[in-house]
Amino acid sequence: MTWWRRGVIYEIYPRSFQDSGGDGVGDLPGIAARLPYLQWLGVDAIWLTPVYPSPQRDFGYDITDHTAIDPRFGSLADFDALVAQAHGLGLRVILDYVPNHTSDQHPWFRDAAKRDWYLWHPGDPPNNWISVFGGPAWERDPDSGQSYYHAYLREQPDLNWRNPAVRAAMLGVLEFWIARGVDGFRVDAMRQLLKDPLWRDNPPNPDYVPGMPEYDSLLPVHTADLDEVQEIVAAMRAVIGDDRLMVAEVYAPIERLVRYYGEGGRGAHLPLNFHLIGTPWRAEDVGALIERYEAALPEGAWPNWVLGNHDRPRIASRVGPAQARVAAMLLLTLRGTPTLYYGDELGMADVPIAPHQAVDPGMARDPVRTPMRWDAGPHAGFSTAEPWLPVGAGQGVAAQRDDPRSMLTLYRRLLALRRDSDDLAEGAYRTLHAADGVLAYARGERTAVALNLTGEPRPLPVAGEIVLSTHSGGGASLQGDEGVVLTI
Ligand code: GLC
Fold first, then answer.
1. What is the residue range of 407's domain?
2. Where are the alpha helices (DSSP H) in 101-228?
3. Is the pLDDT of residue 265 over 90?
4. What does the alpha-carbon distance between residue 396 and residue 393 come to, in Å, rounded to a whole number?
5. Which residue of 64, 227, 332, 390 lies most exposed, with the fewest beta carbons within 10 A?
6. With 60 as the cut, is the pLDDT of residue 244 above it?
7. Is 350 a catalytic residue?
8. Is 421 within the bounds of a domain?
9. CB 369 within 8 A of CB 389
């Protein structure tokens, strides 16, 4: 069995994990210094969001050089040292790979000879396409009078993946990092890579109601998830191979999402499954989601689950602190590879950001990207300088690590249980109960999980011996907000 099937991925937002340079922004040596913590916690791999040179308009997702390290974060030597130290501790390193767009400051975009590396249209925008971040997806260049397409910010022009030179250059980026020893990639914006060559209008979304993000006013049938994208997925997978992990960011309905596994090992190992993020936190809904996802998985595909990331509200804010413990148990006992967002193991919630401190251009994602809380030192041990975003209130690692009731202890126990249990790591999933606020399921032959998604006591719908509870007790019935793992 490959490591990532049993493994747990931990997402690090490098700006906010640990600052070692005293500038209020996290960096690679800071991450390296905290690797022993991650080993102690019990995760298997770290995924770093982009650390490449960038004007930081979209905080690293606007790249000027895909094969270098931004001096804010350190140097290539720091990166090599981080990989070596991680490997020494048995941790894998996964990089964010951003193939869909570059920064508008990238030398390619500024090179007149590489005009066909991007998507230019003479004159005014040819259609109604909207940026994911809102507003028109076309920007008119005053010098040439031409317009270019950008799925995200205007400072993030989309690359033209129909151009073989772009393809060769961007696949070469994968090879560069593979040669430096990385263990995998998380491919950004996978489904956006190709757009309709005829540049037809996107149709209106009949389900759109005012108040929804502007992007949702159209159905992106000509700008996302084109069938031909699968061929690029396969080209990337061919470079990444079987010994390294290919994770893909794919926001899509389950039936479309699972196509990114590809056929015959030609797709992503793990097309990220974000559906827990949008599903109502009710036993019936979560149970139905798991059933639908499990049923949709193609032969041989390995499932995966995500509770949160750097783009979406944190789980503790979505369901509240008490249910966040239940959610932790769900994430770490479902069948499939979990991705854990840094700080969720402390119960970190969204941190309110005053308007004058806001830095995310328009998307309001700052509250979920605030510094990790380590100890009682200045700025919670994150930095000696004023952090780039404020540190939220609440206990950090030092205060939680020896407290048997803390969220951190719960996460660590769940991670250990999962590591030691073949049932939890590999056993088949079977729903036992999904009603009246309680979701219960079996994993393998001898393990069951029962989760009370309400604040009221509920009968325990499965008999067995409790091996782990989100609460201290563990009795014949479930307390409000309690989850238990049982041997049956
Ligand atoms: C992905 C990233 C997000 C970024 C966008 C554009 O959705 O997760 O943070 O803004 O791609 O690169």
1. 3-100+164-427
2. 107-110, 164-179
3. no
4. 9
5. 227
6. yes
7. no
8. yes
9. yes
Provide the pLDDT for residue 481: 97
Mutate which of 188, 247, 306, 309 for ligand 1 pocket (most atoms within 8 A of beta carbon): 188
Q: Any idea what DSSP says for residue 159?
A: B
Examine residue 178 and state whether it is found in any structural domain, yes or no: yes
Question: Would you say residue 51 lies in a domain?
Answer: yes
Angle between helices 321-333 and 407-420 (to 10 degrees): 10
* Contact predicate 217/145, CB 8 Å: no
> Average pLDDT, stretch 210-224?
96
Residue type, 316: A
Distance of CA 475 to the CA centre of its chain: 35
pTM as predicted: 0.98
Structural domain includes residue 281: yes
Q: Beta strand pairing status for 120-121 and 147-149?
A: antiparallel
Query: Based on the structure, what is the number of domains in the chain?
Result: 1
Residue 457: DSSP 8-state: -
Q: How far is the CA of 126 from the centre of ligand 1 (A)?
A: 25
175 is catalytic: no
| Cβ count within 10 A of residue 81 | 15
Is the CB–ligand 1 distance for residue 341 below 6 Å?
Answer: no
> Tokens at residue 443, please?
């994993």
CATH no. for residue 312? 3.20.20.80
Do residues 129 and 222 touch, judged by C-beta distance below 8 A? yes
